[in-house]
């Protein structure tokens, strides 16, 4: 809450004092005029003179107040009024006089506008005056007698009462206004506190509870479940292709998608359950009163079906899916942190199972996770220990069987687990960020080996290297490729870089830089992503690699034949070559030739081979025709 500056507060207080003083001065002028008129009519010339002096003092004080001399005005008016009332008491009726009522009125005014020291000074002077008047009356020094009741006395007393009433009314009015402002300020502070509390406990983008609030609700649910013998479920949700949508359509569209996902999740859940945004494209769902696993499975399925319905963003309809990991209290954990960790593991298991799936936590996942962590630790030392090696799988002309290219495939000679394929460690390398260093090593080693084969007299063929999306995000891929080509002397035309379709949507500038270098670009696993023709034309892609999921069992699957035919015809219309992956039998090769596919790779021709074995393979050229 913002505090007012002290100087600002003092200025406001002085303005309030000046306004009060002006109001009181106006009332005093009216009262003094009434009293003065009465004293003139009664021929009380001393009282008339005193009232006149008082009126002059009030008018002077009023003028000083208008000039901004508030303190001087207050002191002048209050001291002169006190003195004149005291003089009037001495020369008239003493303590019998109605003028004595002016003392409380002056004190009320002083309490409203004067500082404490001035107020106490006036009070002491009045007490002293009362004491002196009493002593004078008792000692015979002055003789005081009350005047008989009459209209004049009534006017004097009534005028003084009017002045006191006006002062009290002004004071009460100020108090009421102050109380009202205080109540409004208290209400504002409470509203601010409620707003701050809401902001501290909710996600700003989706207005869903954040993890802080979810933790509190899960802790409460666990307490109730422990007492009642029930279960609590924590679900970890992750959108499967959010990054691609975010990169291709922009962050604003990504935010809009997250808001719509949040809305759909809220609609799917009951009032006693909680959906929370964990961060990024991750959400958490807490189910507070769980009967059995079937209930959780049913809800997970409903959420997946709800989110599988198309989203409309920027005039386009997009489809996404979610992977869900599930952990249950008490079986999978006794507290929020344990449940969250286990639900996270289960979510990654769902991702590994092909995405758009849900998976319950299993204790074996802990062992898998420990193995994964150990693998990441070993990965950090693998480069320095020279434990990586490349194998090369031939890519051949489907008609002639001639070797056209070789795809460099990474292997890890693990000291404990033996030779590992990339499926065992690439995920860990990407999570740890080591994929960038490993990717640079692969690129350099592939260029080095290609030059060794050329120097050894082997027929020239293209070296094909896979690139990771993580390498693209670093932003320096053009420089890395140029450095590898320069270091080993490989011609850019002898290098082909394999990209996924999602990479085409990420970084246009880097793709232009790569084409300007003269290297070839191919799209790996074509048909499994967005298949955006505009991007294929814009970046002058050279080759489409048809995913093996469409190639295996091609002869028995008319739908896959139609897909492969469409890809081949589209590529031909764009002037691109096609490569079929995963060819394992002669019948598939012949069918691909009939469909118009240009090149192929697979176990029919050769498995991925170490460099020395590829030498023999090229020499023999024992390829089916």
UniProtKB/TrEMBL annotation:
One of its GO terms (biological process) is cellular response to nitric oxide. Its EC number is 3.1.4.52. It holds the Pfam family GGDEF. Its main location: membrane. One of its GO terms (cellular component) is plasma membrane. PROSITE patterns: EAL, GGDEF. Its cofactor is Mg(2+). One of its GO terms (molecular function) is cyclic-guanylate-specific phosphodiesterase activity. It is found in: Cell inner membrane. InterPro entries: Biofilm_reg_signaling, EAL_dom, EAL_sf, GGDEF_dom, Nucleotide_cyclase, Rev_trsase/Diguanyl_cyclase. It catalyses: 3',3'-c-di-GMP + H2O = 5'-phosphoguanylyl(3'->5')guanosine + H(+). Residues 372-622 form the EAL domain. SUPFAM superfamilies: EAL domain-like (SSF141868), Nucleotide cyclase (SSF55073). Residues 230-363 form the GGDEF domain. Keywords: c-di-GMP, Membrane, Transmembrane, Transmembrane helix. It is an enzyme of class 3 (hydrolase). Gene3D superfamilies: 3.30.70.270, EAL domain. NCBIfam families: GGDEF. This is cyclic-guanylate-specific phosphodiesterase.
């Amino acid at each position: 809450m913002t505090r007012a500056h002290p100087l600002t507060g003092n200025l406001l207080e002085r303005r309030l004092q000046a306004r009060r003083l002006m109001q009181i001065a106006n009332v005093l002028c009216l009262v003094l005029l009434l009293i003065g008129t009465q004293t003139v009519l009664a021929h009380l010339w001393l009282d008339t003179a005193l009232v006149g002096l008082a009126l002059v003092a009030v008018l002077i004080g009023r003028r000083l107040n208008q000039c901004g001399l508030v303190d001087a005005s207050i002191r002048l008016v209050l001291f002169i009024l006190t003195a004149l009332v005291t003089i009037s008491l001495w020369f008239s009726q003493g303590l019998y006089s109605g003028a004595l009522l002016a003392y409380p009125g002056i004190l009320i005014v002083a309490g409203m506008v004067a500082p404490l020291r001035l107020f106490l000074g006036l009070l002491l002077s009045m007490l002293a005056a009362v004491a002196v008047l009493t002593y004078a009356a008792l000692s015979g020094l002055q003789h005081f007698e009350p005047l008989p009741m009459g209209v004049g006395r009534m006017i004097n007393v009534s005028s003084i009462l009017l002045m006191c009433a006006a002062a009290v009314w002004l004071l009460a009015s100020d108090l009421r206004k102050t109380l009202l402002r205080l109540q409004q300020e208290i209400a504002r502070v409470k509203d601010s506190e409620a707003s701050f509390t809401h902001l501290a406990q909710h996600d700003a983008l989706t207005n869903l509870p954040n993890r802080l609030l979810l933790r509190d609700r899960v802790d409460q649910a666990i307490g109730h479940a422990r007492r009642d013998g029930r279960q609590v479920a924590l679900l970890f949700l992750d959108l499967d292709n959010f990054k691609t949508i975010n990169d291709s359509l922009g962050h604003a569209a990504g935010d809009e998608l997250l808001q719509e996902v949040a809305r759909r999740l809220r609609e799917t859940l009951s009032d006693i359950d909680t959906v929370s945004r964990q961060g990024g494209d991750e959400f958490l769902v807490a189910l507070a009163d769980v009967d059995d696993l079937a209930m959780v499975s049913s809800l997970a399925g409903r959420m997946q079906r709800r989110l599988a319905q198309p989203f409309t963003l920027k005039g386009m309809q997009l489809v996404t899916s979610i992977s869900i990991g599930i952990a249950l209290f008490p079986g999978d954990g006794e507290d929020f942190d344990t449940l969250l960790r286990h639900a996270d593991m289960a979510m990654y298991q769902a991702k590994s199972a092909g995405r758009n799936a849900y998976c319950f936590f299993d204790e074996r996942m802990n062992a898998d996770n420990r193995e994964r962590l150990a693998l990441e630790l070993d990965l950090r030392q693998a480069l320095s220990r020279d434990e990586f090696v490349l194998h090369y799988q031939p890519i051949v002309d489907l008609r002639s069987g001639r070797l056209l290219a070789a795809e460099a495939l990474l292997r890890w000679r693990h000291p404990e687990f033996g030779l590992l394929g990339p499926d065992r460690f690439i995920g860990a390398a990407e999570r740890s960020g080591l994929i960038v260093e490993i990717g640079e090593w692969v690129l350099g080693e592939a260029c080095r080996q290609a030059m060794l084969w050329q120097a050894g007299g082997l027929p020239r063929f293209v070296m094909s290297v896979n690139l990771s999306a993580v390498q693209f995000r670093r932003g320096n891929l053009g420089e890395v490729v140029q450095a590898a080509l320069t270091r080993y002397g490989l011609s850019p035309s002898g290098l082909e870089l394999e990209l996924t379709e999602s990479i085409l949507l990420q970084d246009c500038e880097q793709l232009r830089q790569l084409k300007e270098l003269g290297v070839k670009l191919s799209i790996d696993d074509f048909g499994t992503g967005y298949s955006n023709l505009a991007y294929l034309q814009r970046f002058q892609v050279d080759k489409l690699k048809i995913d093996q999921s469409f190639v295996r069992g091609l002869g028995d699957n008319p739908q896959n034949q139609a897909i492969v035919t469409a890809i081949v015809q589209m590529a031909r219309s764009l002037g691109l070559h096609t490569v079929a992956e995963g060819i394992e039998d002669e019948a598939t090769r012949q069918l691909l030739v009939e469909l118009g596919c240009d090149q192929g790779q697979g176990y029919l021709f050769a498995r991925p081979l170490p460099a020395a074995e590829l030498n023999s393979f090229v020499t023999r050229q024992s390829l089916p025709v």
